[in-house]
Design brief:
Layout: E1 8-11, H1 17-26, H2 36-45, E2 48-54, E3 57-65, H3 74-82, E4 87-94, H4 103-117, E5 122-130, H5 134-143, E6 146-153, E7 158-166
Parallel strand pairs: 4-5
Antiparallel strand pairs: 1-2, 2-3, 3-4, 5-7, 6-7
Amino acid sequence: MSDPSPVRIRAVGPGDLARVETLNVAAIPHVNGIPRDLFERFRRQAAYFRVAERDGEIVGFLVALTPDADYASPNFLWFRERYDSFLYIDRIVVDEVARGSGLGTLFYRDLERVAREHDIPRLTCEVNLRPPNEGSLRFHERFGFEVVGRLETEGGAKEVALMVCPVSVPDP
């Protein structure tokens, strides 16, 4: 059996948003559903909005914001109240056909590179505790994220672990 084709990480374009939205819907409840216009806003203001492409097909995406973003997510605002500099991972979605292939790690390494280029000292994110997303929690812990808080949203229907990871400096 041959290895899968290589993955290319690239900036999202306007023509990619329909596929991004489809991937996002397929990932609910691990991510929230959001309208297309918010993806368009992310495209314009996110510090990092990239897609992973394999054989011409988008198989994942990651959106990350800096504290100056115009975004009202309670999770994002929690971090903004506590940290002056970070890249907030609003969402990472990997198509079911590409899960387990290392795509999440590839995205996070690329995001770390961007953070280092801009002297951003930490990555932040939240992971669902209710409903549980145990795979994501394990992934983030392996990557070096630590839980620094918890937050209930949607009237207690959801609870998230708020996590931080220092941006590592590569060995010379």
